Amino acid sequence: AAVASRLSSSAPAVFHSILHPQISAAENRTNLGLARAEPRRMVKAMAGCPAKMGFRMPAEWEPHEQCWMGWPERPDNWREHAEPARKTFERTAMAISKFEPVTICASAKQYPRVHELMEHQPNIRVVEMSMNDSWFRDTGPTFITREGGSDIGLAEQTIAGIDWEFNAWGGLGGGCFDDWSLDRSIAKKIVEIERIPRFAHTMVLEGGSIHVDGEGTCITTEECLLNPNRNPHMTKLEIENELKDFLGVTKIIWIPLGLHGDEDTNGHVDNLCCFIKPGVILLSWTDDENDPQYEISVKALSALTQAVDAKGRQIEVVKIHVPGPLYITKEEGEGVLATVSIAAMLHGSFVTPISTTCNTGQRVIVFRGMLYRGYQARDWPPHT
Q1: 325 in a structural domain
Q2: Which of 159, 163, 271, 319 has the most beta carbons within 10 angstroms of its beta carbon?
Q3: E-strand stretches of the chain
């Protein structure tokens, strides 16, 4: 289950991770040493409909085995040659590793540095992997899980990965960069390393464009999935059917637009809202009618409150206020979004970004109160 968004002005690291669902405590990884990891064996792409084989995409709060992260490097995408981002990724990986294993993927150029940084961290593994950028929530596989069975010829396999097509959030002329050939292989490499079945799909989809409750409901935005720069040959109904067949959901709730200013992803749903438990959605909100986000949030609220989930429950919406403008210098880079709807839900804890411009305390209270009682809060300072 993916847990993160591409954009944040406060803490990008966890926002590019993907969570591997947990099989069982006995099957947890025991060899998380620091080493160049080669695929243990090739896993051929599986044919057929995952949902009919009993697979489903789990909710982010469900038990999982580990967290996968990419390591930032691009100087044209990250300010100051990605140095502030790397520091934040390092802190984030260490925070997550207190609760579950972390696998960090780094390019051959960055691998020696990351290896040195993490060599004394027993719960962090470093893997050398080529990539165009580090947005693993979007480029990595969508992990799906099932109770068991032998429908795919691997009776012991209860986890599989969906390898969606990727086009750098829009393709040539509209995407974030012109060469995404390495990112297209990330999902395949991860499922090979994990030795799990791989369901390849030709539909363009990023992990941040969908969010599920684990009980049959998926939320997404029309702005992204119906954008002509993704799958212009597919109708809305065809996209719905593919999501149902591959994610194991039975209900799709469409929200018109994503967060204001989310031009890179064309309105990923995870920057705007997310499930925090079945039937309950956290929604980015503002009371300022002059804020361009206001109308977007009102439309989203209307779509959500008029919908029922796969279990027939009326959707409960919890509003959380977005921050106001954050002023930075030209050297610090162009403005990016500070999303408030994201936290990494770990084993008995959660990691969430903090910001001097948004109500972090409100967000912590919401996640503690609405997700599970007894959760601890783990946060880190904004990058500098």
Answers
A1: yes
A2: 271
A3: 17-21, 64-70, 102-106, 124-128, 142-145, 159-165, 198-204, 211-212, 217-221, 251-255, 273-277, 280-285, 316-321, 344-345, 349-353, 376-380
Residue 55's Cβ-count burial label (10 Å; 0-12, 13-18, 19+) is buried
Cβ-contact 265, 169 below 8 angstroms: yes
> Of 292, 287, 317, 293, which is closest to residue 303 (Cα–Cα)?
317
Token pair, residue 347, equals 């084993």
Say if strands 280-285 and 316-321 run parallel, antiparallel, or are unpaired: parallel
DSSP, collapsed to helix, strand or coil, labels residue 198 as: strand
45: confidence class by pLDDT, cuts 50, 70, 90: confident
pLDDT single digits (tens) 358-384: 555 555 555 555 555 444 545 544 443
Whether 163 has a pLDDT exceeding 90, the answer reads yes
Model confidence at 344: pLDDT above 70: yes
SS3 286: coil
Structural domains of the chain, count? 1
Domain that holds residue 256: 14-380
Assess if residue 277 is contained within a domain. yes
Using CA atoms, how far apart are residues 336 and 53, in angstroms rounded to an integer? 40
Q: What is the per-residue pLDDT for 147?
A: 87
* Integer Cα distance of 57 and 248 in angstroms: 6
Judge whether 5 lies within some domain: no
44: domain CATH number?
Answer: 3.75.10.10
Length of the chain: 384
Is position 296 within any domain? yes
